[in-house]
Every structure is written in structure tokens, then in C-alpha cells.
Amino acid sequence: MSSATPPPAPDAPGDVPQVRAGTLVRHAKLWVFPTLLCTLVTLVLALLYMGGVLNPGDSLHRLPVALVDEDRGRPLPGQQENLGKQITDTIAATEAEDDTVDWRRLDRAEAQEALASGRVYGALVVPEDFTASVAALTTAQAKERPTLSVLTNPGLGSLGSSMAAQINQGAAHHASLEIGKQLSAAAASAPPTTRVLLTDPVDVTTRVGHPIGSHSGLGLSAFYYTLLLVLGGFIGGNLVNSAVDTSLGYADSELGPWHTRRPTVPINRTQTLVLKMVMTAGIALLTTTLLMVASIAILGMDASHLPMLWLFSYCATVAVGLGVQAINAAFGGIGQLVSMFVFIALALPSSGATIPLEATPAFYRFLGIFEPMHQLSAGVRAILYFDARADAGLARGWIMIAVGVVLALAFGFGMTRYYDRRGLHRLTPQPE
Q: Which stretches are transmembrane (predicted)?
């Protein structure tokens, strides 16, 4: 009686027929999803980033600028108000016709307070002796040209401060020409040299209204520091997500040519998210400290209120990291792309840190209401440039961090508990 023929042994891995790339590349279905996704992402990113920076002047909407009238001189002959009142009234009246600038009429102390708290991008100041110095131009007592002062606020960013300075200088020059018309008409018989002076009689001086440190990147160090906080939370959250999935056997590990797959650990989605969030918060202790050491101790960035800066930086990084974990838990494989849009693609052009939100289209001003980078950069800027004042944006930054943490916990655990209750397990545990 003959014995049964044993089944053929399975082919060794090296004996499995290999498919060539040339064969697969001709399959149209293989191209569809990555092509559509890449083109869509590229198009959206181009529209988002370039749309917010191309026309800051044309998009200008109610840029806050202080208007200060300190003029105490008596009105010129035949006029009911002194020149300071005339100038500020004329400038403020343009707001009804043109809403590009939000002129805020303040006294000198209020204007300085607004500059020190980052509520205005600059100020135009009419000095106390302005009318008197203008009147002296037509007399032998003229000693110097009357002056209007333009104050800048570099703590709000070099571009925003520069735009406010240009607006103020333009308004001051226009006022000088209007005054020149009045003086020229009243001094028609004056010598030619005097008439030339009277045509444009006012000198405009520009100086810093609220100074910042010389190692502050012209007011941009707050933005780049905030960007590092967001990137730290974003990258750290994704690295923790990948490392935990690999260690628990839910993802392959590939390092160069070496490929491993660990045994799957039986753990539900909710407990996995707890583990990832705890690790994210723990690792952020180290990354936040290293960020401050590198930026301040090694590179010499100007910074004060260091304990407050460290605490705010840590909480900001954790809030972003928890948001990344929540999004990854909810969306799975495309979670990194979704979190990239939430924390990077939509956040950067609406941050208001490089280009003021008042100089961006309405869509970006809308995003700035809730996108995290705008709130976080305001908090960092308040700590670095504005003496950690709550009304300079620090309070808004803390509120945004708290809201972000609550939303991340509620959304993340809400989705994972829903998946667990529905029995939507990630993988069936396999024995070693």
C-alpha cells in the first residue's frame, strides 16, 4: 500500500515570484488616489499661503493706530480751532470714508499704554507747541520747523509697525501741505525762500514708541519661537503616535533594509490614546526646556519672565500634541494630513505674526479667531515684548490653550470610546 504523497513545501521567501515596478506602474488605479490627494493638497496650500501675503496694502482693514493731539496753542488769526485739533479731526474723519485704518483718539498717556500693551501698531502725535511754532514761521521769531512725531511699535512685527509708520507719515505730510496752503496765502509778500519753506512747513520725525531688545529679530522672534512650539507639539505628537503603534504591534518597523513586526498587544483604542497623550505630555517637558536653552542660553534671544515663558511654552506644546493625538485617533491613516492642515497650513497664514491680520483678506481674519498659532503667538509676544501683560495677548493665549486641551480630550476620547463600543478594533491580537 503506497503512502500518500506529502504536500509540496511552501516556497521560501526568496523563491516567491517578484512583481516588477514596470508592471505595476501601468495600472491606472494605482495612480488615482495619490495623484488626486497630492494635487489637491498642493493647490490648497498654494492658495492659502500665497493668498495671504500678496496684497497686504490692498487688504488693509482697520489697522489700529493712535492719534494724539497735545496742541495747546491758540488758534491762528481768523480760525476757531488750533492746528492740532484741525489735523486730528481731518484724519479721524477719513475713517468714515476709508476703513483701512482704525484711528484711535487718545491722550499721550493712553497712547503710550496702548503701545506698551500691543493694542496699536503706532501713533501720530501733535506736540503741545505745534500751533505756536507754525505761527512763528511767518515772523522773525521762527527758530525751527514745527514737528509732528510718528511712533512705531516694533513688538508687533516689523511689517505691521512699518505699515503704520508709512500711514502716519503720509497723514503728517498731507497735513503739512494743507497748512502750507494757509500760510502761503497769508504770506504772499514774503521773500521767495520763506515762501518755499511755507509750502511744506512741517517736519516729521519717526522714533520707536515702545522699544524691544536688539536680539528680538526686529519683532519676529516671537513668531519663530511660537512656530517652534507648534512644530514641537506637531512633530512630537506624530513621533509618539508612530512609536507607540510600532511598539504595540499595530505598525511595522522599517529601518533601512531591516523590517520587523512585533506581536500585537491586546489594547483598545481608548487605552492606546491615554498612553500616547501621557507620553506626549511627558516628552514635552524635555523638548520645551531644550527649546528655551537653545534659543535663550545658546543663541541669546532677548527674553524676560523666564518661568512664565517656560510654563506657557510647555502648555502650548502639550495642547498641540494632544490635538495631534486626538486627530490621529479619530482619522487614522490620514490623521497626520488633517492635523497638518489644522496646526500648520491654516495656522501660519492666519497667525498675524509676520503680516498683521488687519492686512490680510477677510478669510484669514476669520481663521485668526480660532486658529491656535494666532493666539499662541500673541501670548509669546506678550511675554517677550510687553512685560507679560494679560491685556497684550497673554490672557487670550492661556484661554486658547485651555480650550484646545479640553477640545482635544473631548474629541479624542469621544471618538475612541465610540469606536470601542462599536467593536471597531484596530487589529485582532495575534499570539507570539
A: 31-54, 222-240, 273-299, 311-331, 337-355, 398-419
- In three-state secondary structure terms, 124 is strand
CATH number at residue 83: 3.40.1710.10
Tally: H helices and E strands in the chain: 14, 7
**pTM for the structure as a whole:** 0.89
Cα distance between residue 278 and residue 282, in whole Å: 6
Is there a contact between 172 and 145 (Cβ–Cβ < 8 Å)? no
Instruction: Name the one residue in this structure whose C-alpha cell is 486658529.
Output: 371
> Tens digit of pLDDT for each residue in 407-417?
999 999 999 99
Cβ atoms of 37 and 92 closer than 8 Å = no
Q: How far is CA 197 from the centre of its chain?
A: 45
Residues 407 and 333 in one domain: yes
What residues have CB less than 8 Å from 143, skipping those under 6 apart?
136
Residues 6+ apart with CB under 8 A from 121: 63, 64, 65, 153, 156, 160, 161, 163, 164, 356
Q: What are phi and psi of 254, to 5 degrees?
A: -125, 125
Do 129 and 226 lie in one domain? The reply is no
351 by Cβ neighbours in 10 Å (0-12 / 13-18 / 19+) ranks as buried
Judge whether residue 187 has pLDDT over 80. Answer: no
**Mean of per-residue pLDDT scores for the chain:** 90
Tell me: do 258 and 383 sit in the same domain.
Answer: yes
Quote the CA–CA distance of 246 and 241 in Å, as a whole number.
9
